[in-house]
């Protein structure tokens, strides 16, 4: 099989399908996914929130710019306040967050307990609330991009790992498990595998670090679905209602090789221990647990735009834990760079790693 397109996008997670959608109305696009289904890894395992207080300045700006797409694409957001809590030894960190993000509402310990009654009395010394926080329908957003990209003519090829590549001065020849793909431009949106894909394409890796994040759902009693997402400011745990149960995480960041991430029993136990210490939930029985890889650059900003040393190669990677909430704006930015209609800010460019 030989496929010809203007643009080949490597990866069919959120990054890949969103940039494919943005490009497909203007160029012929093929999306190459190594797995047998799209969104198999990080995207399909994300319990993402739309949080204006999460990430650095560039991430927060991209998040704000993405809001319109979430509203236009359908009911993809559900209100769920975020409460950052701090025991006595983390109050200084909370104060620093308050100075950095003046839009958050300060709460006393008792006020935080009123927002989430399972918080153990006296455990929380102070808190900050983001009332406008919302849960994201991650798979709904992914399907919005995937379905509309297909309707615009984009082709999605599964089981198409890129095994070798060359550039003849005009076009890429990508040798994949599904056959030969010829394209003028390649967009590297391969998530945890983006550095490996870069090497296959003869480009220099940028030092991406895949970090494993564990999550679980535990049985609980008398769960109020209106409780907020609660996270400690030291980022050692978070939890929120998940139906009649509780979704929780130890907020771990375990360096991992690219691959099919699986939860470690120790990390699940840590999540239970930390949430139980801060609350009266007394969680014991785990319904299900999973893990995903969140891939970061060294400065925790994503990387997008052209590779300065490899003709016809563009990047869209390193979204870390913010990839879903900023996906719409970042995809528009990356697509604009591919089309030659815009440039990528230096804080997000590939050049900063060269």
What can you see in these coordinates?
There is one protein chain. This protein has 354 residues and is of the alpha+beta class. The protein has two domains: 2-46 and 138-207 and 298-353, FAD/NAD(P)-binding domain, CATH 3.50.50; 82-131 and 209-296, D-Amino Acid Oxidase, Chain A, domain 2 (2-Layer Sandwich), CATH 3.30.9. It is built from eight helices and 20 strands. β15 and β16 form a beta hairpin. α1 runs parallel beside α5. The protein is elongated and about 65 Å long. The model has no long low-confidence stretch (mean pLDDT 96).
Overall SS class: alpha+beta
Count of all domains: 2
CATH superfamily of the largest domain: FAD/NAD(P)-binding domain
How large, in whole angstroms, is the Cα Rg? 21 Å
Q: State the total count of DSSP E strands.
A: 20
Main sheet specs: 9 strands, mixed
- Can you name the CATH architecture of the largest domain? 3-Layer(bba) Sandwich
- Range of strand content: 25-35%
Q: Quick check: average pLDDT?
A: 96
Q: Could you name the ranges where pLDDT drops below 50 across 5 or more consecutive residues? A: none
Backbone shape? elongated
By CATH, the topology of the largest domain is FAD/NAD(P)-binding domain
Percent of residues in helices comes to: 25-40%
CATH class group of the largest domain: Alpha Beta
SSE order, one letter for each helix or strand = EHEEHEEHEHEEHEEEEHEEEEEHEEEH
| Terminal Cα span | 36 Å
**What is the number of helices?**
8
